Structures are given as C-alpha cells and as structure tokens.
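#struct-pred
JK: can someone run the complex with flavin-adenine dinucleotide? inputs below
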Amino acid sequence: MNNRFEVSDYVKPTTVDEALAALDRHGAAGVILAGGTNLFLEGAAGASVAIDIKDIALSQIVSGDRLRIGALSTVGDIRNAPELTNAYYILKEAADLHGHNLIMKLATIGGNVANAHPVLDFPPCLLALDAVAVLKSSRGERRVPLSEFFVGFKKTVLQNGELITEFELGDFSDRSGGAFLKLAWSRVDMAVINLAAVVDLAADGTCQKARIALGTAGPTPFRVEEAEQLLIGKKIDDALIDEAAKICKAAANPVDYFRGSIDYKKHIIGVYAQRGIRSALRRAGKEN
Ligand SMILES: Cc1cc2nc3c(=O)[nH]c(=O)nc-3n(C[C@H](O)[C@H](O)[C@H](O)COP(=O)(O)OP(=O)(O)OC[C@H]3O[C@@H](n4cnc5c(N)ncnc54)[C@H](O)[C@@H]3O)c2cc1C
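RT: done, structure tokens with the ligand placed:
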C-alpha cells in the first residue's frame, strides 16, 4: 500500500444508501473514511475520493436478543458502554488500552476490523464473542461470522462496494466472563501479543462455552479451537489451564519482528493464555 492518501474529492453521505451509491459511483477511486486513524497513516493505493461515513447513524450499541455494535462506534463509545458486561466486558478492556484520548475519540470498531492487521485489538475480542459482521452493498446484505472474515494478511472477504454496518455478538450468559490481555511497549504502540479469553459456566460450574482468540500469532487473528474443546464440559482446574496454554503456544505462528522474537512471543502467548483463562473463570464466577 502506498503511504500517501491524496484526496482529490470528498463526499459525506448521511445514510447507508447514500454511502453505497457513492461507493458504486467512485469504484476503485473511492475509499471509506471512518475515524481515519489507519487510513491517513497507511494511505490507500489508487484511491482519491474519501467517502466519509461519520455522519451515518451507525454508532449504536444495543442490547436485545443479541448485543449489536454499530460499525461507527468509537473506542470511546465502547469504553463507556454500560451494556458491555460479563463476557462482553473484554471489548471495554481492549478499548481501555487503545492509544490515547484523541485516538479513542476517532477510531471506530468497523475501521479496526476492516483494516485487518493481525496486531489490532478488537478482532480477537470479536472472535471470542462469536461476532457476525453485517455487510451491506447495493447488491444486498450478507452476514459473515468473524471466523470467516479474515482470509490472509490484511485480507478480508469484503468486496468492492461493501460497507460493514454492524457486528452482532453471540449469546453469553450471566455466568460468563472474559479477559483481554495485551503486551505493548507503549500506550500508542501496537500489540506485541494480544489475546482474548471467554468462559461461560453452567449452574454447577462446568464450562459450557470457552473461547480463546489470538491476534498477533499469525497472518490473521484466529481462535484456538483445540484449547477451547479441552475446557468445554469440564470443571476448569490448573492442570487443564496449563494444557490449554500449551496448545495455544503450539498453535501460534508469530513473525520475528522488531517488537519481539518468535520464541519470546510464543512464551508470552503461553503465559497470557494461562492468565486470560484464569481471569475469565474468576470473572464468570463473579470473584473479581
Ligand atoms: C497513535 C495510534 C494508536 C493506535 N493504537 C491502537 C491500539 O492500541 N489498538 C488497535 O487495535 N489499534 C490502534 N491503532 C490503530 C487504529 O486506531 C485502529 O485500527 C482504528 O480502530 C481504525 O479505525 P478508524 O475508524 O480510524 O479506521 P479508518 O482509518 O477510517 O479506516 C481503516 C480502513 O478500514 C476501512 N473502513 C473503515 N470503516 C469501514 C466500514 N465500516 N466498512 C468497510 N470498511 C471500512 C477504510 O476504508 C480503511 O481501509 C492506533 C492508531 C494510532 C494512530
């Protein structure tokens, strides 16, 4: 991607339909602008028309049958959302660690997911919460589970002319809890390691759902289903947590980069998997 984003034209739709029409009209020259915190840093090769979607009413966080988060909800909106309790609290933990105040006011959850870099923080949380992305285009609507959304390094299933409008989260009970852990060298740096863990307990304390998602451990964020399956149907104890952490470590395939070596990152993934599952369990049992 080229590092410059030279804007020759700027449009500001106020409805989803207007945004979709603008995307169709401008084709490859058009690019969606939400908070701009990635776009203006990374640029957008070949694009010259900014389609600024910030005036569209897509920043709702609504609890109902399912919790729904509008794609334009900012990090600040998520940080302050009273609806995000139990397992859903991990989104607030991720928001709390996201850059500084100005970035929190601008950056949106839709932009974070669409950017699709594996070091970003909301994707592992949304994976751990069984999120489904709602995508709209002039061709209609489709709903894509986050587990099928990322298809390669910074590659997603998003097609030309498509807009993420919201995320619908999975069903987690009052006996669920979660934890989001992130190692970063400063508040404004990306994660060296990030991990989201969720457990949902039956009335007798047996684990009925477990989710562990890694965000910095390969070209795309992903769930470690083998570790999840190990925990489901059992009362989670230290031995199971150690075993699940070993599985996470083995599943990780991080890159050697200036933020940390492969061995170091794998070591931290093992440590964070243990901590994440323990915190999730404690919170599900309401002992925090
Ligand atoms: C100083 C600083 C600190 C940061 N710290 C963190 C951090 O701690 N954790 C973290 O995860 N990230 C961090 N970031 C990265 C960035 O803030 C996030 O990725 C942010 O959520 C991106 O959202 P945005 O609204 O700014 O996206 P934009 O920059 O507006 O867009 C990003 C990309 O997504 C596309 N897009 C945006 N919205 C949609 C949509 N609804 N549908 C389809 N495509 C869309 C755009 O066309 C563009 O390609 C940081 C960035 C900076 C500059």
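RT: quick notes.
Residues 31-39, 41, 71, 97-99, 103, 106-108, 110-112, 114-115, 120-121, 158, 163-164, 188 surround flavin-adenine dinucleotide (CB under 6 Å).
DSSP finds ten helices and 14 strands in the chain.
JK: thanks, will look after standup
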